């Protein structure tokens, strides 16, 4: 609903090209005032991202040799666009924890989710306060997301990423799937094995691509 107001009041609307065929005119984004840029908005602000390498240790995660880190973000079950429970999330976390090498850090959205996951054992760390999720995800071997910004950020950071989002698939998620950066999960048995992934400079491609996106965004804004 906010788009219907914002798009109509705006003189210029800048949007990712992934949304170009999403019925924007019905929301007030007419062809005359709409400009598209390549990539996603997350690439713009991740273009110069530098992770906090010490965050994982401060959360109490001790991976040791061969240990794996999984970051998990539950569904937005209180949001208007996803106002239903998704039991697949808890099953995925439980499944991953069967591997003794794995540590799962869950970033809950509200206290109810925190309470539901608190009994899964010491290798399931449920954050009690906000953390720098991007730094955490940059060190992960797998991200289990439920759609939304964090899921897209993980995919763009080069982390193996699966989405359990059960609502209508957003166009940006489809864009990531088409490029092999995101995988939609329908059943826990489809979870990929969690293996230690080489970190290296996994951000190098994102920084290069992000710099190009910023230029494209500025060109689109200037043309407007």
Please write out the topology.
Layout: H1 2-9, E1 13-16, E2 34-37, H2 41-45, H3 55-58, E3 68-72, H4 88-97, E4 102-106, H5 111-117, E5 124-126, H6 133-137, E6 142-145, H7 149-156, E7 161-163, H8 171-178, E8 183-184, H9 204-223
Parallel strand pairs: 1-2, 3-4, 3-6, 4-5, 6-7, 7-8
Concise account of the structure shown:
With 224 residues, the protein is of the alpha/beta class. Helix content is 33%, strand content 13%.
Report what the structure shows.
By secondary structure, this protein is an alpha/beta fold. Helix content is 33%, strand content 13%. It is built from 9 helices and 8 strands. Strands 5-4-3-6-7-8 form a 6-stranded parallel sheet, with helices on both faces. Strands 1-2 form a two-stranded parallel ribbon. Strand 6, helix 7 (149-156) and strand 7 form a beta-alpha-beta unit. It is globular. The model is unreliable at 78-84 (pLDDT under 50).
Order of helices and strands: HEEHHEHEHEHEHEHEH
* Percentage of residues in DSSP E strands: 5-15%
Read across the widest sheet, the strand sequence of neighbours is 5-4-3-6-7-8
Question: Which stretches of 5+ consecutive residues score pLDDT under 50?
Answer: 78-84
Quantity of strands, as a count? 8
Structural class comes to alpha/beta
* Residue share in helix: 25-40%
Largest sheet: 6 strands, parallel
User: What's the end-to-end separation, in Å?
Assistant: 24 Å
Total of helices: 9
Mean pLDDT: 87
User: If you compute it from the alpha carbons, what radius of gyration comes out, rounded to the nearest whole angstrom?
Assistant: 19 Å
* Silhouette: globular
